[in-house]
Structures are given as structure tokens and as C-alpha cells.
Write a structure and sequence with these properties.
460 residues; alpha/beta; Rossmann fold; six-stranded parallel β-sheet; 16 helices; binds acetyl coenzyme *A
């Protein structure tokens, strides 16, 4: 475990410098979130103007805090930050998150460099220009974002503050659970490589998701990524693909986006899965988090609509997913329970009359088979079948027969289908609103299977 990074995520005592009594002020919101998130360590507001803030004793300066401090959150105007960093170093604070903007992103790298050299060898710094850090393991929401965050298995490192703040809301709305969120800001000191190394070792994190615009030390990052991928999957959204996008990244975070082809090759070599955008990245992460990695490449698709079967077959072919030929006896077993006008060939078409009982029965038959490595279940909303019941049957089949096999699902249709797959998400099932996305999710799992195989792990 990176001991220098640990105090950011598991501090015993946190100080908020610039804590305010005024709701809406950043120093107020951060303190409020730390308090409300159930953080079990000590919390020390620091502000020369108050005796207490949010019912906690408040201190004039860091020096007055009657305890060691592992993490300081700094939310005072830019011109005061250097003084506060000096106070932190004198108090031997182990880590600091500088929320304040107004440094290299507005051309003042000199100010930022000064902070880093003051802290060098004594304290690590995240930021400046960040919204903070959330860590599920410590029940600590040290951000000025939404208070409630859904706990899960993914560590999300983001160079864009706004995206990170949006994701905090999504965690509860879209059921994307996170083990940690780090707004990495200007990366004056702690950078992606430090965090990747830390989360590779973190037992509460099972996948790593990064939004990045640029890297200062590409070699170090790709080395860290290569090592981390041997232990857990990593998905990267690298913005600035196009020339104009690269320009936008440069004016957003001062990043040099670099030549996209070079990044693409380096991600590939390191084994980081590069997503095209947010939707794809979260689809992959969801499939990876909620499923075991397949032991082989044999995929079976089950659907109630011929069209969905064809679409998903095309997508599988395009991505290199192998729809297996079913053995004669499995074909016969499926045939025995499906209508004569259906198809017992892969993709298996149960026809539009297929109800929850038929889905459950066929999925159980397939999942019991040793030669089947992965299943994609697709449902098209029809007039007479309740999508909610089918969704329940699919999750039950997974829970009963398929815990060692990955399965993704799509529920295509209106409001009832949406409600059905949302219920599946609540039961920790990788479900999507389109067949293509369910196939994409499975493709991420198959990519992981091939990676593990190349490391000599996994397989039947
Ligand atoms: N020690 C402790 N507290 C102090 C000190 C000190 N030395 N000096 C001043 N304070 C207090 C102030 O009294 C004030 O609290 P009060 O008004 O309740 O008494 C508090 O610190 C904050 O100081 P203000 O001057 O009121 O500054 P303000 O809160 O307006 O702004 C901030 C400070 C938020 C850090 C601002 O400068 C800033 O950088 N804002 C942008 C932050 C940001 O967006 N970061 C990037 C996130 S990523 C994203 O959002 C997309």
C-alpha cells in the first residue's frame, strides 16, 4: 500500500481550513459533507472568525488544533494558500487537498510549483483546483458535491471536476457504485500514476476508471497501469482525440493532450481498456463489477425477438465475440421447451410469447452447461408479457445457476422495460436499455478474460 497516499483516503483526523458558517460557501459544504457522510475520525474546522462551525469547535489556525492532522482540506482564496500550506508543513500534516482555483490553469504554474517545493518530502498534495475526495471505506465525503454517494467497487479518478460532480449524482440515480472518487485537479504533486498504484492495492476497489485529458509523465503512468491491470481491470476515457478536442483540453486543464495514436497504442500495450465516452465506460465497468470473468469464449444469446437476435449477432461478430454452436443435446433440451416457430440455434429465439417461466427455464438449462462461458439475455417489450417478471426470472436464474458465469441483459422498450432493468441494477445485475450495450458489456468481460489468460490466470 502506498503509505504516502493512504492519509488522503483513510485519515484519522481531518482539518477544513476555510470552514465557513455560511451555507453555500465551499468551506461550509465540504465540512457539512464530511460530517454527514458518517466519517468516524476527528474533524477540525479552522477559521479565525468562529468559535464553532456546524456544532464542531473551530480553531483560529492549524497550529491551534489539539491533535495531529492527517488530511487538511484547503478552501481559502488563492493568495492565502501558500501561508496555509506553510502551516500544514509546520504541523506535520501528512496530506493536503487544495480546493482553491487560480494556479496553473490560469497560467500561474509558478505559484503551484512553490507549494509543491514547500511540501516536498513532508506532505503530499492533491490539486490545486479540485473538488475533493470521496472514500467509501472511510465513509468520508470530503467534497463540495452531493452528500449521498452510492458505495461500490470502482475507484474513479477524474481530471474534470464537473464530470466528477455529475458522477456523484449518477451513483445514486444510475446505480453506479464507487469505492472512491478523486478530483485530481491540476496534478501539481499527486498524479494519476500515484493513484493507480494506490488503488491497485486497495482491497475495496475492484476496478479503476480514469477520465484524463493529458499526462505529465506518460512513461510512469503506463508502467503503473501495466502493473495495476494484472490485478484489476482499468477503463480509461482519454479526451482530446481530435485536434479541436486537444485544443479544448489545453484550455480546460492546461493539459498537453499529445498525439492520440500514441496514447491509443500505449493504452493497448498497458492493457487499459479505452472507452469512447462516458456511456461506454460505465457500461463496461458495470459488466466488469457485477460479473465473474468468463472462463472461455463461448457466448450464448437468448432473446424473444428475432430482430434483437440479429442485431446482437452482428455486434458480437463486429467485436469478435464468439456465438457458440450449441451441442445436439442442448439444442434438443431447448427445443423441447420452446415453441416450434422459435429457434433453438444460437441466438436462441424464444419468440414474442416467451414469459418469465420460459426465460427462467432456458437460462437455467444453458447456465448449467460447462461448455457455455457467457450469456446475453435480451428482451423486447411485448403487449402481453410483464418485463418486470422476466427481469426477475433472469436475475433468479443467475443467482441460482450462474454465479460462476457472466451474464448481461438488455430490456428494450418503454417505461415498463426501463423499470425492469432498473430493478435488475438494484440486484447488482449488468442490465442495459439496448442489445448493443449488453453485447458491449460482455465484450469488456471477454477482453478481461483474454488479458487474464495472457497473464496465465483464468480459463476453464
Ligand atoms: N484560515 C482559515 N480560514 C480563513 C483564513 C485562514 N487563514 N482566511 C480566511 N478564511 C476564511 C474566510 O473567513 C471565509 O470564511 P467566512 O467568510 O465564513 O468567515 C473562508 O475562509 C473562505 O474565504 P472567502 O474569502 O470567503 O473565500 P470564498 O469562500 O469565497 O472562496 C475558494 C474560496 C472557494 C477557495 C475560492 O477561492 C475558489 O478557489 N473557488 C473555486 C474552487 C473550485 O472550483 N475548485 C475546482 C473544483 S472542480 C469543479 O468544480 C468543476
Amino acid at each position: 500500500m502506498r503509505r504516502d497516499i493512504e492519509p488522503f483516503f483513510a485519515p484519522r483526523a481531518v482539518a477544513v481550513v476555510g470552514a465557513s458558517r455560511t451555507p453555500g460557501k465551499i468551506g461550509h459544504e465540504i465540512l457539512r459533507n464530511i460530517k454527514l457522510s458518517g466519517f468516524r475520525g476527528n474533524i477540525f474546522p479552522v477559521n479565525p472568525n468562529y468559535g464553532s462551525v456546524l456544532d464542531l469547535p473551530c480553531y483560529r489556525t492549524l497550529a491551534d488544533v489539539p491533535s495531529d492532522v492527517d488530511l487538511a482540506l484547503i478552501a481559502v482564496p488563492a493568495k492565502l494558500v501558500e501561508g496555509v500550506v506553510g502551516d500544514c508543513v509546520r504541523k506535520r500534516v501528512k496530506s493536503a487537498i487544495i480546493i482553491t482555483s487560480g494556479f496553473s490553469e490560469v497560467g500561474r504554474r509558478d505559484l503551484e510549483d512553490r507549494l509543491v517545493s514547500m511540501a516536498k518530502g513532508k506532505m503530499r498534495i492533491i490539486g490545486p483546483n479540485t473538488f475533493g475526495v470521496y472514500c467509501a471505506r472511510s465513509s468520508m465525503n470530503a467534497t463540495f458535491g452531493p452528500t449521498k454517494v452510492l458505495e461500490g467497487k470502482t475507484a474513479f479518478i477524474t481530471q474534470s471536476g464537473a464530470l466528477g460532480l455529475a458522477l456523484m449524482d449518477w451513483t445514486t440515480e444510475e446505480k453506479y457504485g464507487v469505492s472512491a472518487i478523486v478530483s485530481i485537479g491540476n496534478k501539481a504533486d499527486v498524479d494519476d500514476a500515484d493513484l493507480v498504484e494506490y488503488f491497485a492495492d486497495d482491497p475495496s476497489t475492484s476496478s479503476i476508471l480514469i477520465y484524463m485529458e493529458g499526462l505529465k509523465d506518460g512513461r510512469r503512468f503506463f508502467e503503473a497501469a501495466r502493473r495495476a491491470v494484472r490485478r484489476k481491470p482499468m477503463v480509461v476515457i482519454k479526451a482530446g482525440r481530435s485536434a479541436r478536442g486537444a485544443q479544448a483540453a489545453s484550455s480546460h486543464t492546461g493539459s498537453i493532450a499529445g498525439q492520440d495514436a500514441i496514447f491509443a497504442a500505449a493504452f493497448q500495450q498497458a492493457g487499459a481498456m479505452r472507452a469512447e465516452g462516458m456511456t461506454q465506460a460505465f457500461d463496461w465497468i458495470q459488466a466488469l463489477n457485477e460479473n465473474p470473468v468468463p472462463k472461455g469464449e463461448n457466448v450464448v444469446v437468448v432473446t424473444n425477438g428475432g430482430g434483437l437476435g440479429v442485431l446482437s449477432t452482428d455486434r458480437c461478430e463486429m467485436l469478435g465475440l464468439k456465438l457458440m454452436d450449441l451441442s445436439d443435446d442442448l439444442t434438443k433440451q431447448v427445443q423441447d421447451v420452446t415453441p416450434s416457430f422459435g429457434s433453438a440455434k444460437n441466438p436462441i429465439d424464444l419468440t414474442a410469447n416467451a414469459d418469465d417461466l420460459l426465460y427462467g427455464e432456458v437460462l437455467r438449462l444453458i447456465m448449467r452447461r460447462r461448455e457455455v462461458d457467457a450469456v446475453i439475455a435480451l428482451f423486447c417489450q411485448t403487449a402481453n408479457i410483464d418485463p418486470g417478471l422476466v427481469a426477475r426470472a433472469i436475475v433468479d436464474a443467475r443467482d441460482k445457476e450462474g454465479l460462476d458465469k457472466p451474464i448481461t441483459a438488455a430490456f428494450v422498450g418503454g417505461r415498463m422495460s426501463q423499470m425492469a432493468y432498473e430493478k435488475m441494477l438494484e440486484r447488482r445485475f449488468a442490465a442495459y436499455p439496448t442489445a448493443e450495450r449488453a453485447v458491449d458489456g460482455m465484450n469488456a468481460l471477454m477482453t478481461r478474460h483474454r488479458q487474464l489468460k495472457s497473464f496465465g490466470k483464468g480459463g476453464r
